[in-house]
């Protein structure tokens, strides 16, 4: 049997600190119902002014100080089908069969950089390569606007295999108005009210004035789409105490709308279905981790005869536990909690007994796992499944306290345990340790 590798990250590959974000809210914004010579459609209201949709990213983002500017730190992909839940997805009524919705209107809404424009000189992996600055509770924004300038964002519409950027432009006709594709015409109200005919399979339109002879528009008529929001590390600093992300002016940071004509002037909102503002559900804290990992750690558990494994769930008899020592360098003071991320053994699927599965290798042993336990109490260290959301991390508190400019030591024990019928072979495993301020 060979070694296990207990992986941390060094200065070039630091410990992975909690990078999950909570909480986007799609809040339904006001729509102006306008009549023009071109078309005559208006929003259905309610519900489009008071029925928010919520996306949950977690309550906090903890960044390593070495994370480069422009690095994604959180992403959310919001399915357009969530809008179906509001009033059955019925969004507008039109007077005429020829009235049509033709364009998306995709706008970043009041970035916290100078002039609300995207940050110059920084390109990110988005539809147009531009990044904007999120409002937060900090100060000293190096990009000339409000907040700390430590978090950027992009918003994209994903539809028909393409990504379209939400962009900040100051005046029509320079709005970002990609065509929907096939024009969307309303469904006759007589069908919409009953869920029959052209509205077959749609929820009936109820509690809405839709006269016979008029038409109604449903979100399901649009091509399937998603809205992708990505957050990025920027040049400003949130500090180790952190900043709270906030909604920008007019209580949002992106605006998602539908439009009848590319020539519509933005100031008047003629024939604009001004529907959804993307909003943060709550102030989400972003802060710098006071510590980062120094190196990866490999620990040898030695060779153990299969005859020593006698009891299911127990270690090999007569074999001592192996100490594991992990070090991190801390640049500020603070109390630290930690978690173990890995793949739990099938014998312990919930990870409660702290048993890691063996790596899938040629000539691998079977019937054993690697158990991680506290030094002293010998209590198992709970395993957090790899890929878990930050809110689901199973944090461990061993009263660690970081001191600025000093090394932080983290110790525990590892050992083989029996999880089934033991067969000889290689018995390697791995785990990732995550440190985070308490």
UniProtKB/TrEMBL annotation:
SUPFAM superfamilies: Bacterial adhesins (SSF49401). Its main location: other. Residues 295-435 form the Fimbrial-type adhesion domain. Pfam families: Fimbrial. Keywords: Fimbrium, Signal. It comes from the Bacteria. This is Fimbrial-type adhesion domain-containing protein.
């Amino acid at each position: 049997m060979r070694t296990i590798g207990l992986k941390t990250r060094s200065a070039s590959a630091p410990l992975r600190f909690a990078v999950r974000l909570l909480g986007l809210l799609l809040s339904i914004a006001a729509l102006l119902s306008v009549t023009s010579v071109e078309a005559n459609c208006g929003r259905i209201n309610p519900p489009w002014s008071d029925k928010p949709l919520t996306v949950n990213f977690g309550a906090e983002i903890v960044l390593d100080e070495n994370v480069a500017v422009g690095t994604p730190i959180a992403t959310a992909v919001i399915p357009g089908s969530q809008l179906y839940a509001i009033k059955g997805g019925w969004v507008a009524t039109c007077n005429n069969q020829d009235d049509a919705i033709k364009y998306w209107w995709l706008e970043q809404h009041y970035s916290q950089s100078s002039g609300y424009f995207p940050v110059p000189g920084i390109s990110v992996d988005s539809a147009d390569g531009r990044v904007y600055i999120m409002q937060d509770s900090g100060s000293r924004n190096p990009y000339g606007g409000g907040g700390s300038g430590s978090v950027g964002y992009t918003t994209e519409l994903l539809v028909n295999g393409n990504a379209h950027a939400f962009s900040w432009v100051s005046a029509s006709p320079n709005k970002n108005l990609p065509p929907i594709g096939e024009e969307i015409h309303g469904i006759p109200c007589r069908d919409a009210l009953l869920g029959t005919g052209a509205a077959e399979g749609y929820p009936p339109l109820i509690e809405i004035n839709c006269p016979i002879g008029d038409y109604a528009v449903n979100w399901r008529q649009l091509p399937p789409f998603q809205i992708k929001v990505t957050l990025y590390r920027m040049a400003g600093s949130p500090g180790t105490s952190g900043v709270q992300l906030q909604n920008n002016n007019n209580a949002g940071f992106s605006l998602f709308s539908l439009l009848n004509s590319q020539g519509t002037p933005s100031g008047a909102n003629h024939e604009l279905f001004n529907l959804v503002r993307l909003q943060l559900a709550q102030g989400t804290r972003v802060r710098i981790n006071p510590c980062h990992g120094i190196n990866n750690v490999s620990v040898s558990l030695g060779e153990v005869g299969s005859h020593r494994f006698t009891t299911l769930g127990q270690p090999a008899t007569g074999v001592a536990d192996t100490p594991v020592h992990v070090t991190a360098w801390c640049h500020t003071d603070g109390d630290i909690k930690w978690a173990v991320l890995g793949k739990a053994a099938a014998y312990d699927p919930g990870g409660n007994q702290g048993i890691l599965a063996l790596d899938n290798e040629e000539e691998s042993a079977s019937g054993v796992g690697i158990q991680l336990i506290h030094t002293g109490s010998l209590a198992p260290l709970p395993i957090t499944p790899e890929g878990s959301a930050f809110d689901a991390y199973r944090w461990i508190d061993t009263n660690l306290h970081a001191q600025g400019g000093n090394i932080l030591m983290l110790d525990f024990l590892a050992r083989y345990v029996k999880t089934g019928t033991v067969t000889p072979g290689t018995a390697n495993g791995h785990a990732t340790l995550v440190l985070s301020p308490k």
